[in-house]
Amino acid sequence: MTVIFESDCNRLRVFSALTGHEGDGAAQEVEAGLATSPRTLPSKYFYDATGSKLFEEICELPEYYQTRTEHAMLEQFGPEIMAGFAAGDLIELGSGANLKIRALLDAVDKNQRRLIRYVPVDISETALIEAAEHLLELYPNLTIMGLVTDFHHPLDRLDHSRKKLFLFMGSTIGNLHPDQATEFLSSVTALMDEEDRFLLGLDTIKDRAVLESAYNDAAGVTAAFNKNILSVVNSAMGADFDQDAFEHLAFFNRQEARVEMHLAARHDLEITVGDLGLRFTMNEGETIRTEICRKFDRISAEVMVRSAGLHIAEWYTDAEETFALALLEKRSETG
Fold it and tell me: What does the DSSP 8-state code read for residue 204?
């Protein structure tokens, strides 16, 4: 990894593990997804500047319960989660705007906080640095080591002499297929020492109407967010998708315990992805799946994490069991 940013106060250093070849794999992923049935696009293409702004709006919508519920739970259970955690590293995978980390930092006193090092890990260099600098304004004694990387690169800057608490919030794990989730969780397990822990945010299985309302808001923000993926692919891959030719579609697939987001063709279409030399047709009503959002109960969560060598040490939920925080530890060799 190379240093790409260092603050004047020496409390913020940012390293990058990106090689410049990440776009090659992304192009292959897009090409393979558009050739499958049903067609798919990688959900990471939601997040250009417009997509990130739209997602921030989604998090404030009355129908979208996940963000506010998880944040309230972090405030409620933060002191218990952080109890005994001193002189360690708080490692947030997919840190984004760093909003939720504040609840955990606020759960410890100032003397304990100055011994903590915050390690945000994010693919966006600009977003990581901006969020980290704002965090330093709020917590003057905090030390931050940012890592610009995706989850396929090893986090080889981690200090194994320090206790570690890994964080993966927002039920982002639900965007991964089961084999992908196992691979990702196993990669984190490999970084954990015996006393380390892993806090995982999980959206729970609940009434279909509540779930589908969260992805079909009355203001149409989620629809705009979903369609924006087409603009991102247009820019990145020289494609000619027309947002107006597609309709937002989101529904709960009970058999798979997941919400699916699709874009459905309003009429027959012919689409070109110039950079890939790809041309294909879509029939009216045919869809491109843009995201899956898996939902969990404690049993299915335990099955998932055990496949990666982890177990649930603590299971926190809100009063209505709308959302869950699973505090994970490594399984013993005999466990």
Answer: B
Half-sphere exposure of 205 (CA within 13 A, CB side): 12
CB 273 within 8 A of CB 34: yes
Q: Which residues of 294-303 are buried (b: 16+ CB within 10 A; e: fewer)?
A: bbbeeebbbe
DSSP letters along 13-72, please? EEEE---S-HHHHHHHHHHHHHHSSSEE--GGGG-SHHHHHHHHHHHTSTT--HHHHHHH
Yes or no: say if 100 and 127 are a contact pair by the CB < 8 Å rule: no
- Does pLDDT of 241 surpass 80? yes
Domain layout of the chain by residue ranges: 2-17+63-206+297-330, 34-61+210-294
Helix (H) or strand (E) holding 197: strand 197-203
**Which value, in Å, is the radius of gyration of the alpha carbons in the chain?**
20
Q: At what angle do helices 66-82 and 49-59 cross, to 10 degrees?
A: 80
Q: Which of 204, 166, 205, 202 shows the shortest CA–CA distance to 326?
A: 202
Over the range 100-134, which residues count as b (16 or more CB within 10 Å of their CB) and which as e? bbbbbbbbbeeebbeebbbbbbbebeebbbebbee
> For residue 213, how many other CB atoms are within 10 A of its CB?
17
Rounded CA separation 107/197 (Å): 17
DSSP structure class, residue 7: -
**DSSP label at residue 205:** P
DSSP code string of 240-257 = ---GGGEEEEEEEETTTT
Task: Tell how strand 89-93 and strand 143-148 pair up.
Answer: unpaired
Tokens of 249: 């579609």
| Domain with residues 2-17+63-206+297-330, CATH architecture | 3-Layer(aba) Sandwich (3.40)
Nearest to 264 by CA among 281, 288, 296: 288
Summarize pLDDT for 142-192 with one digit per residue, the tens: 999 999 887 666 676 688 889 999 999 999 999 999 999 999 999 999 999
Query: Quick one: how many helices (H) and strands (E) in the chain?
Result: 10, 15
pTM: 0.94
296 DSSP 8-state letter? B
